[in-house]
Specification:
The protein has 134 residues and is α/β, with parallel strands linked by helices. It has a domain of 86 residues: Nucleotidyltransferase, domain 5. It has three helices and seven strands; from the N terminus they run αββββαβαββ. The strands form two sheets. A five-stranded mixed beta sheet has the order 4-3-2-5-6, with no helix packed on it. The chain starts with 17 loop residues before the first helix and ends with a strand. The mean pLDDT is 84.
Length: 134
């Protein structure tokens, strides 16, 4: 006597609603994702009549200074530590551009100290940030 299986079960996964689910997930992640922007220190940047935009931000290190705090890539540092930090970044990426975002009320001695530390680190490509205006 032979026994036969009366019912066959399907092993396929239904994929008819898969595109709908994928597009809903894609839309959800597009709406809910927040891109991180460098915050730095709140500054009152000086104004300039003619400004140029940096081409690419991949090789840029931002340094913020507001008179009492100095920040490099969103981390507060002392001015004397700038040399070692920038030198380490410069060795890793020789195409590095230093972008200085200095408050208009900063005294010249702090700016001179920052420049001397950058010069000692070998970072000679320096960009000054300003906002457009008169």
């Amino acid at each position: 006597m032979e026994f036969r299986k009366k019912s066959k079960t399907s092993t396929e996964i239904p994929t008819s609603s898969m595109p709908d689910i994928v597009f809903m997930l894609l839309l959800f992640f597009m709406v809910s994702t927040v891109f991180r922007q460098s915050s730095g220190i709140p500054l009152d940047l000086p104004t300039a009549k003619k400004i140029e935009k940096l081409e690419a931000k991949t090789n840029v290190v931002n340094i913020w200074a507001d008179g009492k705090d100095v920040s490099i890539d969103d981390k507060l540092v002392r001015v004397v530590d700038l040399r070692s930090i920038v030198y380490g970044k410069y060795v890793a990426n020789p195409k590095l551009i230093i972008s200085l975002k200095i408050d208009r009320s900063v005294e010249m001695n702090l700016l001179t100290a920052i420049h001397s530390e950058l010069r000692e680190a070998g970072a000679l490509k320096v960009n000054y940030c300003a906002k457009f205006g008169d």
